[in-house]
Design brief:
heterodimer; A: mainly alpha; flat; B: mainly alpha; 79% helix
């Protein structure tokens, strides 16, 4: 009986572990894809409006900085006791996740403008066209280089953090790295194929999914790092993902309804005000 | 030099804390409460999810109220 219970428990553990790895891959892949789409828009604008070689050098420089950051911080993170790491990392992921969720819910309910890669691209091109070309050693256009470099570093820093922390916490940095590289590969291939901003990518939906994942992982690890025991152990994580997603959708529905009621009220008041 | 340091600090503040400092403070507070209460009982898993249930609608309420006031 005990052996059967142990086998059941091991089976549940394996399923929870597989779901944890799947969730890890999905969270890192989607977070990386969203940030890569945003970085691709900036680089595309610099390459089109200014100089492709300088934009490319900026990308290489940015990727180099991110690679050094991951290579330097990765081994350092493994030296921190797992519980302390989960407390700090869980807290940060939870803050990041709630920020992503907040923005996504505001966008989905109409309280914030949707992220529009076409509009961002046009704005970047207009700004880039107005700047005088300045050469530096090895770089034909310093402006295109620095904007591309900053775009890659700033968009990639959060992803580097997610790759490191998810990978270290789940003891699977290689899987997190593969997920990140796969996302970058898919986005770069798509950007090269269409040679235009990736406006068709459902960025706002992806951000909502990433917000749900980061909030769930952050809640799970943060509470565990602070000393809490989750009922069911690792099996609580998928339950948290479903609960956070349901909560986010309920908030979107609530805010949409409120927005509709306000718009209706404003329309009813408008004729009265003009008469 | 001072301006660069200020920019550097502003970048990290924006990176870590983001748009709403109340959310970051609430998360830190929830984790601290979990840590303290966990010393006497292990049934503290509900504190952080409860913080999420309170903080997210509160932050959204503040954001939508600002939008409506404009």
């Amino acid at each position: 009986m005990q052996a059967s219970g142990g086998a059941t428990s091991r089976g549940a553990g394996r399923i929870a572990g597989a779901m944890g790895s799947g969730a890890l891959f999905l969270a890192v892949f989607l977070a990386c894809a969203v940030e890569a789409v945003e970085a691709a828009t900036i680089v595309l604008a610099m390459g089109t409006a200014r100089d492709w070689r300088s934009a490319g050098l900026g990308v290489l420089g940015g990727v180099g900085v991110l690679a050094v950051t991951v290579a330097a911080l990765g081994p350092a993170l493994t030296l921190i006791p797992l519980r302390s790491l989960r407390l700090v990392v869980g807290g940060l992921l939870l803050i990041f996740g709630l920020q992503w969720l907040r923005k996504s819910i505001l966008r989905a309910s109409g309280y914030k403008a949707l992220h529009d890669e076409d509009a961002i691209y046009s704005k970047e091109v207009a700004a880039a066209s107005a700047v005088v070309v300045e050469k530096r050693p090895g770089v034909p256009d310093w402006y295109a280089f620095t904007v591309s470099f900053k775009g890659v570093v700033l968009e990639g820093l959060e992803v580097a953090f997610i790759v490191l922390t998810f990978g270290t916490n789940q003891h699977d940095v290689p899987l997190a790295s593969v997920a990140a590289l796969a996302a970058v590969g898919v986005v770069v291939a798509a950007a090269v194929a269409v040679r235009a901003p990736l406006a068709r990518v459902p960025e706002n939906t992806l951000k909502l999914v990433v917000g749900v994942m980061l909030t769930s992982f952050g809640t799970f690890w943060g509470a565990e790092g602070a000393g809490a025991d989750w009922p069911g152990g690792d099996a609580a994580l998928p339950v948290l993902v479903v609960a956070v997603a349901a909560f986010a959708f309920a908030l979107i529905a609530l805010l949409r309804r409120r927005r509709t009621l306000q718009d209706d009220g404003a329309r009813r008041l408008a004729p009265a005000a003009t008469s | 030099m001072t301006a660069r340091l200020r920019d550097f600090a502003a970048f990290w503040y924006d990176f870590v804390v983001g748009d709403d400092w109340r959310v970051a403070t609430g998360v830190a507070l929830a984790l601290a409460v979990t840590y303290v209460v966990s010393r006497s009982t292990s049934a503290t898993w509900w504190i952080v999810p409860l913080a999420v249930v309170v903080l997210l609608p509160y932050s959204l309420w503040r954001a939508t109220r600002r939008t409506e006031d404009r």
